[in-house]
Amino acid sequence: MGDESKKTLSKIPLLKTKAGPRDKELWPQRLKEEYISLIQYVQNNKKTDNDWFKLESNKEGTRWFGKCWFIHNLLKYEFDIEFDIPVTFPVTAPEIAIPELDGKTAKMYRGGKICLSDHFKPLWGKNVPKFGIAHAMALGLGPWLAVEVPDLIEKGVIKYKEKEQS
Amino acid sequence: MSSILNVAEEETSSNDSNTESSSNDNVSYIPHKLVHSDQCYSRLMALKRMGIVNNYEKIRKLCITIVGIGGVGSVAAEMLVRCGIGKIILFDYDQVEWSNMNRLFYQPRHIGLSKVEAAGLTLSSINPDVIIETHHMDITKVETYEFFLDSLETSGLTFGHPVDMVLSCVDNFEARMAINSACNEKNITWFESGVAENAVSGHIQMIVPGKTACFACAPPLMVSAGIDEKSIKKEGVCAASLPTTMGIISGFLVQNALKKLLQFGKVSDYLGYMALTDFFPTMTLKPNPFCQDNYCKIRQDEYKLNEKQQPPDNCEPAPSEDSVVHDDNTWGITLVSESEPEKSHEQDLSLPTGINREFTVDSLPCNEDEEVSVGEETLEDLQCKMKAL
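Predict the joint structure of the above. Result:
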C-alpha cells in the first residue's frame, strides 16, 4: 500500500460496535456507524476530487447496491455493484460483487464476487470490528478496479459506452 | 439419460428447489430399474465380521448435512451414499459449470443445473435406499441462515431430531464461519475441510463444540504448500484445483466422519496434507476460553462440567502432548498496516511444521479520535444523507 492510500485509509472513521444483522438490539447502532463512516469517506473522496462510488442499502441495511466508476484514458467506465451483509459480519467482510463482469475475468468468483488480494482478508481479520463497509470499498474494491479494469479494457472485454457518461 | 434431464428441467422451474425425496419417490429418477439386494452392503457388513467396525448397521440410522457440494462435498456425498447412510441433506447455491469438469462427480450433461439438483439425481440413482434432501441456497444470508439453523435442529432421520453431523465442504471463510456459529449454537459436531487455492495442500478439522477449538477460536490455519510461497504466482488467476487433492481430502473427511460416528479407530482432530512432499501433519486444538463466539464459550462451560461429572471416556483418544492452547489469541482490535504481511506467515512454534496461522493478532491500543462518533441523527437521516451525496 502506498503512502497516499494509507493516508486515505487513516481518514476513514473506525467502527466500534461488534454486531451483525442477527443482533436485533445492536445492529441498528452498527448500521449507523457504517453510514457515518461511509459518508465521511465519500466526503473525503469528493474533497480530493476522487469520488468513485455511490452506495445505498435496503431499510434493514442487509443488502447494499450502487455504482462504482473508474476513469481510464479520460473515459469513465461505470459498473453496478451489490453485496449482502453476511450473518457472520463483521467477523467476515462483505463480498462485493460486480455481476455484469461475471465470467469475463478469472479474478472473480461465481456471481461476480471480486477475488480479493491475499492481504485483504487477514487485514480485515485483524481489524474486527473496526473495519466496516467503507474499508471494504477502499481496501477491496478500489484496488481491484485499479488492477483489473485497465487490463479488461486492454483485452477488449470491457468497451466504453457513450451513455455511461452521466 | 434424457429422462433424467427432463426431471431436472421440471425442477429448475421452481426457484427454491427444496426437494425432499424418500426412496420410493426416487424410482422415477432411475434410468434402469435397479435390482436391489443385500449384496449392495455385503462388503460393508464384512467390516463387522472382521471386527473393524462393531456396529456398521448403525449407519442406516444416521443423518449428515453437507454444506457445499463442489469438488470435495460431492465426492464425500457419493461416498456416504455408497456406504448406505440413512439420510443426507445437501446445501449449495451454485450451479454446475464447465470449469468444474476437472473434478470428480459432475458430468458435462449436468452443466447448467444447480449442483444440488445434479447431485440429488446422481446420488439417488446410485443408492435409492438413502433419503436425500436438497436445498438450493446460500446459508450466509440473513434470510436463509435461520432455515439452516432450523434444519440442523429438526431434520435428522427422525423428524424433530437434530442431524448427527455436518460436513463443511465450502470454499470460503464466510460460509465456514456461518457453519461454525450454527453448529456452536445447535451443539452439533462438524468437520471443516479445505483445499488450498494452489491445489497442492488441504486439511480436515473436527470441531466438537466446547471440546475442540471452534473455527472462530483463533485465526484460520493454513497448510503450507511445502515450497517457497513467494514462488507461487497469482497474476490473472483466482484459484487452481486438482481432482486428486480434492479426492484425497474427501476421503480423509468421510473416513474420519465414519470413525467418529461409528466409533472405530482414532479420529484426527486436525489432519493436513501437503501434496508436494506427501507430508501429513496432525494435531489437537483446544478451544480458546476467550473465543468471540458466545455459544462456543457456553459449550466450553458445559463440556467442563460434563467432564467433571463423568469418568474419562476411554474410546476417545487422549489429547497429544503438543496440544495448543490459544489463551493469547483473542481476535484482535488492532489496526495493522498492510505493508507487514510477512509477519502473518511467521511460523507459530506451537503448531506442527507446515501449519501456520493465516494471520496473527496483535493487541495494540487504538486512538479514540480515529473512531466514528455517533450523534443525534437517526438511521433514516443518515440513509437520506448518504443518498443525497
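Chain A touches chain B through 59 residues (CB under 8 Å).
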